[in-house]
Write a sequence for this structure.
């Protein structure tokens, strides 16, 4: 029996979220936010934290800076029950990454200082540790600049050890959508983009066409469509699952929480409609509190939310 249910190699940093700003941000003005939240951020770490909250045994590899923000992020992940024994602090000038989210009334601005996010390399990975698991998840493909050129090799090694693999590309800050992604698809079991990412990666405006294209490359493609829920395609079979109706505070980390909900069921062998439904419950739960993990780390609140929506976790 492997040590972990899921292993993840990726970024670990905080999100600083400012609420109540206007959508248009005029320069040279003193703009007032009415609420702030400093919370665990980064797609990889949010998936890890929330999978652990949902009962999976999770192992995590990352690099952070030797600074207070990195330490807070690390403490949060450890408090969530994730094994962080393979997270290393890098000395030197590079600080841990930080994402600042300016939440406007209609749009948000997302600004990331990558810091040590770009420093994680293939040589940093303990492949024996990552492979001692049933499943491997990889997030933020385009942010993993130090690792990206060897993700094919990483996935080959992980697959050879018998794990299944999921991939959430997240946004490409360069908006190029090129590189190695096409080469990694042969090793991916579950591909988890949002609707915009699915269209960008396939170079089409039409989401159905994008899904059909991706479904030829991976066994299962699941696309997150925000307040509309999620759609999926497996071969020629199409599925749709509506979002829950909730009072959303923000959607920061909702996609990562969806990934955690879906994967927790995928690993239990649940059928696809159940995987999608639990993904939507997890995504909705995330939106009810600021950031991607605040609603998950409150165990009583989390359990009550899942139970109220028909899921025993
Ligand atoms: N307003 C909302 N109401 C209910 N559920 C929501 C809402 N917004 C998002 N969700 C849930 O969260 C999931 C993920 O949302 P979204 O489409 O924003 O992902 P994403 O863009 O990948 O997010 P992220 O910013 O974390 O990368 C949705 O599929 C849905 O289940
Ligand atoms: Mg996402």
């Amino acid at each position: 029996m492997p040590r972990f249910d899921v292993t993840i190699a990726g970024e670990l940093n905080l999100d600083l979220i400012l609420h109540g700003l206007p959508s248009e941000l005029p320069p040279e003005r003193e703009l007032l936010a009415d609420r702030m939240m400093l919370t665990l951020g980064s797609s990889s770490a949010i998936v890890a934290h929330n999978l652990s909250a949902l009962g999976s045994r999770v192992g995590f590899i990352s690099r952070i800076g030797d600074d207070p923000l990195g330490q807070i992020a690390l403490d949060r992940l450890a408090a969530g029950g994730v094994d962080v024994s393979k997270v290393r602090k890098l000395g030197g000038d590079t600080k841990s990454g930080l994402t600042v989210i300016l939440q406007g009334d209609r749009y948000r601005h997302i600004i990331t200082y990558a810091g040590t996010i770009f420093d994680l390399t293939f040589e940093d990975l303990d492949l024996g540790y990552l492979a001692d698991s049933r499943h491997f998840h990889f997030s933020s493909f385009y942010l993993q600049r130090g690792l990206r050129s060897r993700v094919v090799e990483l996935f080959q090694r992980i697959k050879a050890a018998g794990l299944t693999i999921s991939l959430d590309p997240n946004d490409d800050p360069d908006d190029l959508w090129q590189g190695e992604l096409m080469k990694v698809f042969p090793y991916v079991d579950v591909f988890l983009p949002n609707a915009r990412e699915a269209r960008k990666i396939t170079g089409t405006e039409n989401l159905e066409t994008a899904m059909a294209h991706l479904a030829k490359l991976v066994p299962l493609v699941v696309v997150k469509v925000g307040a509309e829920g999620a759609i999926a395609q497996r071969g020629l079979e199409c599925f749709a699952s509506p979002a829950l109706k909730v009072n959303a505070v923000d959607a920061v980390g909702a996609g990562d929480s969806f990934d955690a909900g879906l994967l927790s069921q995928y690993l239990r062998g649940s059928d696809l409609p159940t995987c999608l439904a639990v993904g939507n419950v997890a995504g909705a739960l995330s939106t009810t509190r600021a950031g991607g993990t605040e609603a998950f780390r409150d165990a009583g609140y989390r359990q009550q939310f899942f139970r109220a929506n028909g899921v025993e976790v």
User: Anything to note?
Assistant: The pocket of magnesium ion (ligand 2) is lined by residues 168, 170, 194, 255 (CB under 6 Å).
